[in-house]
Amino acid sequence: MPKVIIDGEEYAFEGRPSLLQFCLDQGIELPHFCYHPSMSVPANCRQCLVDVGAPVRDRETGEFQLDENGEKVIRYFPKLQTSCSHVISDGQVVHTARSSEKVERAQRDTMEFLLINHPLDCPICDQAGHCPLQIQAYKYGPEGSRFEFRKVHKPKKVKLGPNVVLDAERCINCTRCVRFTDEISRSGQLTIIERGVKNYPITPPGVSFDEPYSMNVIDLCPVGALTSADFRFQARIWEMASAPSITTTNAKGSNCYLWVRDNLVMRMTPRPNPDVNEFWLPDEDRLTYRWFNENRPCGPAALNKSGACSWDEAIQETAEILKNTGKETLFLASARATVEDNWMLMQLAEAVGRQVAGYIPHIEPGHGDGWLRTDDRAPNSQGCARLGLQPIDVKLWSARLEAGEVQGLYVLEDDPVAAGLCSAQALDNVQVILHYYNTTNQTLPSANVALPAATVAETIGTFVNEAGRAQRVVPAKAIKGVNRTLMMQMGVSRADQHGTPFDRWHNESHYVDCKPSWEIIPLVARNLGVEIAAQSPKKVMQHISASIPAFTGATYKAMGLSGVTLSPIETEVAS
Amino acid sequence: MTKAGDWQSYRRVLLPPVKDLHHLDVYRAQGGYEALRTVLNDWKPEEVTAEVKRSGLRGRGGAGFPTGLKWSFMPPVKPDVPRYLCCNADESEPGTFKDRQLMEYNPHLLFEGILIAGYAMSLKACYLYVRGEFSSWITLLQNELSKVYDAKLAGSNILGTDYSMDIIMHKGAGAYICGEETSLMESLEGKRAYPRIKPPFPAQSGIWGYPTTINNVETLACAPIIIDRGGDWFAGVGAKKHPGPVLYGISGHVNRPGVYEYPTGMLITDLLEIAGGMRDNKKLKALVPGGASVPVLRADMIDGVTMDVESLHEAGSMMGTAGMLFLDEDTDMVAFLRRVARFYHHESCGQCTPCREGTGWMENLITRIDDGEGNLRDLDLLLDLCDQMEGRTVCALADAAAWPVRNTIKRFRGDFERRCRPSAWAVNT
Ligand SMILES: Cc1cc2nc3c(=O)[nH]c(=O)nc-3n(C[C@H](O)[C@H](O)[C@H](O)COP(=O)(O)O)c2cc1C
Ligand code: SF4
Ligand code: SF4
Ligand code: FES
């Protein structure tokens, strides 16, 4: 296998990797800004310079030339090479800043240049704390500055589009944002204008940066030049803990991080997963984060208790209703709930001698774009299908509901009224039990028992995306009640990316009084005298993966944080 | 080497003294387009390239790369893969103004050269990228080009042969950087003129990603002469390692500035004489021999130096574009350098960090010195900045910005030190 020597150590490589990517893959740090693995390589920041040489071969014999010590003679390129654009070949010798003063100096020099016109905004900059420029300036930059002139002034606070705000003075002209709109999203909505040191990215005249993926440039930007219109100045990076999760706005299951401070989700950013969303997230996914904080319920309620009640009362009341109308109850699973929650519901329905009728399809034709948005606006239709659940016949059930043929309705984490399954009036004489996330749920006023359910940001569970990839979520924020499983998971689920794995802020009012459905349902079943065997989501999934062929291999261990792709199934999924 | 006096007998070939030569009929009456006819009828493409190699012609665009060798870098012809020639007429370096003279007075020599080069590399289209500000020359070229098409000298079945080739004119985007070969291609493709990283070189991936050769106007204009008079004749003109006729663009404090055609390898002192000597009988102080980016020479460094790569290299400068700027004894070298630095600051495309930031910083420092507010340490900082920029960027503009700064300071340090504030501590010896 071909080999390359980096800082005196030999590494084998395959194919034709770029030197920078190869070093990063080996855990060898090289400072860089403009390079991004998914885009073209302009080599314009000049930060990743290294010294590269190759052994000299004798022209006639083709043998390597040796010096008096028997070592191969190395001829170095006359200029330092940008490692991002350099393709390694066999036998090459590379010196990074660790073994070459020349390289160290060059990297320091470039950094000095990068900083001369960069404003000293760090104390008020959103990027501070996870800023490649800041971090690498400390590591590779000069001490102090020799620049004694007025910095170049450029437009600040430019609203490029609805979601992205530019501070042109902070821009280091890496062109990542422009390349994203040219090569990845292909909207072509950004370009660099002006020339030389006045350069900055902007939209063409009359164009708004309103493409559905615009916010990705915020993550791509190696400095704080591009900020989120929504998040800017809201939190310092080191105040937030981040938890790996997935987005639930559609059936793609894009991987994301949820950033939490004071038990509020502050923002959502993409979590790279080459098999799902690569490095990207659609704007519509990100902007749903408020949904975890706003209009959240404060505890359960029961109609016959004329409003708020305790969890015990709510669960007793639920069991009571099921005892009376169970056999005539329409059980609706949910493509928004986890596999585990849906499985629980199936057990409960069985306990009262019914079967789950199916789930409400959330199809919005034309919404999908063949990339990270899908027509299916729910995250788990596949998961339901694999449990053997079908999308319900909306017309049929809507007619029955409107005709008053249904006596009970048990809704798992969904909203039949908003989904158009029935009108609120049609539910006047129906016993409705509702697991819900937000008080904006339009079925809520009709509920006999309203059970606040934990959202994807608070629960543990599995979603299966449209491509059959099973992905696990972990809690990003805490709920009010005591749930040992969640609490144990919370202890390990948050990544210490930029500051803290803990949430040091504790405002009691930000703890939502809800419970995961996988906790609620077994309590209801117990009240009916039925014990559901597997109770923690992990155990449920173990059981499911062992007993349902469509879930073979879908254990928590196998899923890890990036999921596993399950074998295809032949079941009808809502379409 | 051409001795003083010889130059009087030199007969011009690039810009011969013929009235109205820019008219197609006048040009043809002088035997124009006959070299093209000969080549199309009797030569194989590779023979043309071989002849150009034999002539020893080096590019006149600044880098002085051997032209025949450059042509031979084109990959073998593949039927479905287009390939292009590109003529660089973006001339915009300060002190360089010879291409526009050719375009004005002998445009057909250029067209003929383009067609011959196209035939040599078996390609079907040449983009002629003319500096956008040259609007009157663009109109002139366009008029003449349409006559060339009417006379069946370009387009399909040129001169009745089965060779076809188009010449497409393109108006430049108005920046010095558009003259850099790869950024010219970007600009031609309708993009922002950001130079590309090399490799891949244009012969592998040029315009629209297809094999491309790019040459300067004057370089291509040499082709008909080489065919007409033979590579050996060409190789015998001027300096051995850098032969041929060349257009010297002489400017500065001389009596008769202008474009002069002479062989390469002329003594600088002869060229000064040709240009009528220094204005007002002033003494020569400095010479920039090849356009603003090459290192400046002090008057005492030019004795016996001739205008060709070898001799200029020995003297500590470069041939560049042969745009010679003579500066007299009254010249303020700080002000001179300030103006040069301003140019590169203004023209850096801003892609690479060292060039984008360095050119501006340099101008700031030199301005401060020129304004009498500089410090001695600023001179060392300027030299540091040269080190920090040179050889570390995508294109050569950063080098071109650093060289004059480095050499003007090194070669005229006294002029700079006198303008700086004295250092806080007197230096005792
Ligand atoms: C910043 C920069 C500007 C340039 N401008 C021009 C120009 O205006 N005209 C030109 O012929 N070559 C220019 N060149 C040189 C070209 O890159 C290229 O070397 C030349 O066109 C090749 O032609 P030749 O081989 O015939 O000399 C420039 C180079 C640089 C680095
Ligand atoms: S705004 Fe950010 S991503 Fe865009 S060019 Fe500037 S530094 Fe790069
Ligand atoms: S060296 Fe200067 S002009 Fe050339 S590509 Fe880099 S920034 Fe642009
Ligand atoms: S990362 Fe290599 S030049 Fe920017």
Structure overview:
The complex is a heterodimer of chains A (575) and B (429). Chain A is of the alpha+beta class. Chain A is 22% helix and 17% strand. Chain A has three domains: 112 residues, Roll (Ubiquitin-like (UB roll)), CATH 3.10.20; 113 residues, 2-Layer Sandwich (Alpha-Beta Plaits), CATH 3.30.70.20; 265 residues, Rossmann fold (3-Layer(aba) Sandwich), CATH 3.40.50. In chain A, strands 16-15-21-20-19-17-18 form a seven-stranded mixed β-sheet, covered by helices on one side. In chain A, strands 1, 2, 3, 4, 5 and 6 form a six-stranded mixed β-sheet that branches. Chain A has a three-stranded antiparallel β-sheet with strand order 7-8-11. In chain A, α7 packs across α12 and α8 crosses α13. The longest helix of chain A is centred in the N-terminal third of the chain and has 16 residues. The mean pLDDT of chain A is 94. The model of chain B has no long low-confidence stretch (mean pLDDT 95). Chain B is globular. Chain B has three domains: 223 residues, 3-Layer(aba) Sandwich (Rossmann fold), CATH 3.40.50; 84 residues, Ubiquitin-like (UB roll) (Roll); 87 residues, de novo design (two linked rop proteins) (Up-down Bundle). At the A-B interface, α2 of A face α13, α14 and α15 of B.
